[in-house]
Design a protein that fits this description.
The chain is mainly alpha-helical. It is built from four helices and two strands; from the N terminus they run E-H-E-H-H-H. It folds into two domains: 1-39, no CATH class; 41-93. Strand 1 (3-5), helix 1 (6-13) and strand 2 form a beta-alpha-beta unit. It starts with a strand and ends in a 5-residue tail after the last helix. The relative contact order is 0.09.
């Protein structure tokens, strides 16, 4: 995925016919975020990615526990694995 600063994205759009944006194919980051990410070392980027992944895993597990209080921990983990499997079957955009 290509990261495009919002200001550059707006510049590229000037004078072009307006087309709907396929949000599955592009992510627009705030200019400040682009600056922060560019200053990170590759190791820092990987670390942040791992932290985000762990955060999202924790959020989904918490949601599953909340929505299904009768489930055992094993059932919650099985649903987590099932959802991960679904992600692997999605087409690459």
């Amino acid at each position: 995925m290509q990261i495009i600063p919002a200001s550059l994205f707006r510049q590229r759009l000037k004078g072009l016919p307006v087309k709907p944006i396929d949000w599955r194919r592009i992510e627009i980051l705030d200019d400040r975020m682009v600056e922060i990410i560019r200053k990170m070392t590759p190791q820092e980027r990987v670390q942040k990615g791992m932290e985000l992944s762990q955060f999202m895993r924790d959020r989904v597990l918490c949601h599953l526990h909340t929505e299904n209080p009768q489930w055992t921990e094993e059932q919650v983990q099985e649903e987590w694995r099932r959802r991960l499997q679904l992600c692997s079957t999605l087409p690459n955009f």
